[in-house]
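Follow-up to my post from last week.
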Amino acid sequence: MKLRNNAIRLSSVQLIVLFYFSAVFISTVLLSLPFAHRPGVEWHFIDALFTAVSAISVTGLTVVSTVDTFSVPGVFILAFVLQFGGIGIMTLGTFIWLVMGKKIGLKERQLISTDQNRGTLSGLVQLMKQILSLILLFELVGTVILGLYFHNYFPTWGEAFYQGFFASVSATTNAGFDITGESLIPFAQDYFVQTINIILLILGAIGFPVLIEIKDFMFSFKSASHYRFSLFTKLTTFTFFALIVIGALLILLLEKNHFFAGKSWHESFFYALFQSVTTRNGGLATMDINEFTVATQLVISVLMFIGASPSSVGGGIRTTTFAISLLTIFFFAKGHSNVKIFKRELDQDDIRKSFVVVFTAVLLTGSAIVFLSAVEPFPVMAIIFEVCSAFGTTGLSLGITPELSTVGKVTIIFMMFIGRIGIISFLFLLRGKVEGDHYHYPKERVIIG
Amino acid sequence: MKLRNNAIRLSSVQLIVLFYFSAVFISTVLLSLPFAHRPGVEWHFIDALFTAVSAISVTGLTVVSTVDTFSVPGVFILAFVLQFGGIGIMTLGTFIWLVMGKKIGLKERQLISTDQNRGTLSGLVQLMKQILSLILLFELVGTVILGLYFHNYFPTWGEAFYQGFFASVSATTNAGFDITGESLIPFAQDYFVQTINIILLILGAIGFPVLIEIKDFMFSFKSASHYRFSLFTKLTTFTFFALIVIGALLILLLEKNHFFAGKSWHESFFYALFQSVTTRNGGLATMDINEFTVATQLVISVLMFIGASPSSVGGGIRTTTFAISLLTIFFFAKGHSNVKIFKRELDQDDIRKSFVVVFTAVLLTGSAIVFLSAVEPFPVMAIIFEVCSAFGTTGLSLGITPELSTVGKVTIIFMMFIGRIGIISFLFLLRGKVEGDHYHYPKERVIIG
Ligand SMILES: [K+]
Ligand SMILES: [K+]
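User reply:
Got it. Predicted complex:
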């Protein structure tokens, strides 16, 4: 590992953690304001903390029913927190991508008009403006479409737009919270609502650098045919959609004779597609995942564990990490140590980093699963599912999260935190003072596997 | 990856697979001989194949009760097959270690007096002689001690030595088969029998190269203090015993208020120690693992997944793979890309190989777990356990293996095969003609995790 960027990198991680902790603190306070709650609601500190962490990390796991707990002002506060969390995360993720630009290559850095010379703070502000305007645009369009359409479901325009607004914010930020009381289950037969949600979910989870490159591509009229997408964009976008397709196909296959028995092809198709898309990071669902078989629940757990694109609102090990790990195995089996894809070669540092992420993630989620199995009375399938959902900051649930003990809730909070900041940042956090690596010992080979 | 040794490596893998398939074929025939069965036993081809694969890979998972199915001659045939499997595996594993000697270093190669110039076949024969004599020595000592001692349990000397012989063979080869009908449960209170078994299990699973180095160390009278163990021996032995200690401590901790409630400290200690040792590869047990909590069953699954030392009778990802992966994360978090341990530096190729093994193993066991969940009606915990047991060629069971459908049994057979030959060999098997890797594309960085 080259140590060149350590100083910058370390402070970036500190920036994320600082943002995360202060945002959680403020959110805990905001969500605990008396007028944010419906009358008669009991409000415990651990539930406030859990909801704040879940909202800031846009996970969407809940220990209390959002609709039964929060008043209308409370729902607006929650929507604000989701905004703040989603945009904050995207901004910081992308900012680090820019700061690391020297390693990533000049080209990508120039994709965004952030002038590094003006100093990092003004660059950060400008970047946040760009992301904010893009996200707000998505949310506005989503609110208008869903608000108008929801007049079919809700008696007043006010109620329709209130629901449309929250649904749009929750989908775009991939927050997974709902004020219907049962996620998108009321719209299980409404393919229009689902399609709008799918589009918003994908726009939020596909990663800001990808969005910027697509924007650039669309506005480069004269030379659109010569526009070159970065390797990162190609890799993450391909993996993102491949996971959605494979996930949907697996769900269709595994549930053919179970949940989909007796259902029409278009019903089955939309159930499978929506639940596959939502595993990237959405966390919304058009059904109770408990109705799926254990095999499908395991597949969904794995998909959540993989998660979304880097520099998006999503968590997990990230699409690029998964893709690079798979590619490395494939090329290793072919006898090559260089991984070639899209006419580019991966850097060995990125390969090593991917494996570090995968192995650490497996260790951490595995430990959390064992720990929760020891302290909680729930079936191991439900525990695996909730842990993967927390690490992927997905927010799908088999329903045990509200029943967890305090120590169980803290474990899920911890997993949401790690899923959110990412394994690499987490490992950098653990790092104390970086020692030089200037001495060497003789190399010696050992037998592997 | 350097391609220097590809030709040799590929033929080594072919050698293993050739050995494995012909050994399984012969064993299936031998175990199907009519006089090998007790009167009235129904014998299906899939059960014959399963038993042969389990015996040749010294796994010990069973679809039929050994004691109820096999006659006395049948038990001797089984013992022979275990011998053949255990010694064959150790020989081939070590042989490849020697053939790869050029990469591993001259020193280790010289540890065994195999003269490469005499050609690989005579080297193989000589090596097999060494391993055979060592294993037979262990088994003979084990048989004598257990046979004499078992007179306390069995009415005749004949029965005592029959039981002692099989127990000794099963422990030394880490086969995990038993003719008591209930593993070592009859000896749950007998610490002497357990201690002898633990010693034999460790001698079988610690790896032949380690045994050879220990022998060398003991016979190098003049310069014992200057004897340098290889990095491989230090790393694998340390990890081997660390896993046993950590496993026992975790079992003690997790079962303190459950299985160990009301049991004396020495009873608890031996239960925890034996069950921890047996996860390396033994597969024998002094209790029904179903009596442990789910958390302990998960821990045992992970320990089996890790498995034993390379070039031993054991399977799994192997101790070295696990150790190197952990060390790499640790040094990565410190900001170093070089991994230093025991005053030596690991080769980057070995690091990459370790991660390839871990990731492939996670993918394969994960897929097997999902697949079995889809086709079998059993709880996911039991499926996770049996798959890890098969991949680790451990043989512990929560009892569902005999109930599996044919396609389920084939899945377990496949996992035993991969666990046995190892992930690296498996990947080399998949490799077709090795293409040159002489062209290059520009490098481009991507965002990870
Ligand atoms: K989410
Ligand atoms: K075994």
